[in-house]
Amino acid sequence: MRKYLAPNDTHKITIPLVVGAEYAVPTGEGKLTTRISGVDTTVIVPATETSEVEVDVITPGVAAGQVKMINCLFTMPTTIGRMQWRENFGVVDLLDVPATPSDVRNLLGLTLDELEDENIDYIEHYLKYYSTLKPEFHLQRIDNEYLTKRFGDLIAINTALDLLPTLITRLDKKRATENGEITRLGTAKDLLDLKNSLEDQLAEILDDLVDYLDQEALALTPAFQFISLYQHSIGI
Questions:
Q1: What's the confidence (pLDDT) of residue 182?
Q2: What is the pTM of this model?
Q3: How many domains does the chain have?
């Protein structure tokens, strides 16, 4: 899953010095090259006495609803060979995203332990649906909290729908409580009921925002075959 960084800032990234599957000790300076909008920048990184190195990644500005990519390449000589690390980051105006991982978890009835933030790709849905809403919508939601909330709901519900198939293997279906044991989403019907509920909420949002939607750009989340997926997960 792609990692996203806030714009106009310096982000410290920790890189493990691994060659193959082994941690290594550096024998000289490293080199970090970043490419932003086709422009490469290279900086020298001093050697470290530990098995990891910390580098600074400086992010550019970016307009709301847009993403800029930073492609990073770091190399450093070590005692067991030259290590190489590559990573791509997306730069997004995170303050403009009116949804959070907690919103998605609440829709699915999950805890942080069951679904961690880094496994919720809500930024992708923000970018996707930003362009499906007309420019006047984004201008109006600047000072309209209701429109901002509906946009956040649109992002969260579509993210939840995309995550539904993974619940079959992710969710601890039986959980002990102080009053005994509870069962959650134990059958394919339970998943279908949750899917239908989310799709009903999505339909209400799209109806609310119909005057702002760019119908040509809108692509609804596809339906999944939950019954066969559930049966496969339990070996039927």
A1: 55
A2: 0.81
A3: 2
